[in-house]
Amino acid sequence: MDKVGVVGCGLMGAGIAEVAARSGGHVVVVESSEEAAKAGLARLEASLGRAEAKGKVDSAADVLARIAVETDLEALADREVVVEAIVEDEDAKVALFRRLDEVVRAPDAILASNTSSIPIMKLGVVTSRPQQVMGVHFFNPVPVLQLVELVPSLLTGPETTERARTWVEGSLGKQAIDCQDRAGFVVNALLIPFVLSAIRMMESGFATADDIDRGLVLGAAHPQGPLALADLIGLDTVQAVAVSLYEEFKEPLYAAPPLLARMVDAGLLGRKTGRGFYTY
Ligand code: NAI
Fold this sequence. Notes:
Elements: E1 3-7, H1 11-22, E2 26-30, H2 34-53, H3 60-64, E3 67-70, E4 81-84, H4 90-103, E5 110-113, H5 120-124, E6 133-138, E7 147-152, H6 158-171, E8 175-178, H7 187-203, H8 209-220, H9 226-233, H10 235-249, H11 258-265
Parallel strand pairs: 1-2, 1-4, 2-3, 4-5, 5-6, 7-8
Antiparallel strand pairs: 6-7
The structure holds 1,4-dihydronicotinamide adenine dinucleotide (NAI).
């Protein structure tokens, strides 16, 4: 699959577009406004510039030449695979999948979502082709982390999953694991309650953010502590995933702690806004 579409050019969308173009694909990314498209392009240029400086990409300009950032979903009409990476909001994603079903004309195109926690079935059933809708969940930062979770819904055709696997492993050079369509899939269902526990620990005054993070780095060999990880993921995304997990399983360990909600309301979203548990 050479004709790739991505919707959303934020943290994840830009990363997915970059990886697809670096592996030789031709990518159309659609953003919601001219301003967001400009910011998305700047994000791609910065990331590819860093990759070139580190010798990981021969020519950032050549890769960028294979990426078009647009604002009209019609630009996705001829795509063979489209990965949705917009905000983690069910209503927004449902509305987008309805539109994708209208605009993406290639009859066997895969309509994929990078959602961290929204049931794939909710997105599949609003299209006329739920057999071609599935979760293809990348990890942040996309150019660095190897894993992709493949998440078919009950209605996804087995050939769709296999074509997605071939794309992800064969073309993009990633490694896939298979997950059921359950909130959080495998990795976030385990990781998010861990991050929430760290926030509760800090909130209760049990230990400082720095000591919690240093504890896990030095004592459990984690590459970064859970609060630094929350800042990297984005606290709005952490909260959204927690809400979905709680809705699905009704377990207190998935409930978002008040401090997380207050920080999101305050716009302290982590790295992307310059301040979260740490200042950047
Ligand atoms: P983000 O906030 O960085 O980017 C979202 C982008 O989507 C923004 O640039 C926004 O302008 C754009 N957008 C919003 N509505 C749109 C629409 N209707 N059409 C086109 N563009 C639209 O969010 P991020 O972190 O990239 O997350 C995107 C998705 O990826 C979410 O579903 C999230 O759960 C998932 N995800 C996030 C990870 C993370 O570590 N942040 C990891 C894996 C998955």
